[in-house]
Specification:
Layout lengths: L4 E11 L2 E11 L10 E11 L2 E9 L12
Antiparallel strand pairs: 1-2, 2-3, 3-4
Length: about 70
């Protein structure tokens, strides 16, 4: 299955080698639409040298038809 993501992303460079992203999305690898709520993501990108990039991702939000925060 191919990877896909629908949403918007904003990046903020904190330093020449460090960038942070905020992501709002409506779907993540889904062939169906279980709900109409947004999901969220955070990403931290650190490039200590030009040949190495480290990324940390955090994804959270409702991915099922029950959208109460307890089910995130």
């Amino acid at each position: 299955m191919p990877y896909y993501l629908w949403g918007v992303q904003a990046s903020c460079p904190f330093h020449a080698s460090l960038t942070g992203d905020i992501i709002l999305m409506t779907g993540y690898n889904y062939l169906t639409n279980p709900n109409n709520n947004l999901s969220y993501g955070l990403q931290l990108i650190w490039q200590p040298e030009s040949s190495m990039t480290l990324k940390q991702n955090l994804y959270f939000g409702p991915d099922q038809s029950e959208t109460a925060v307890a089910y995130w």
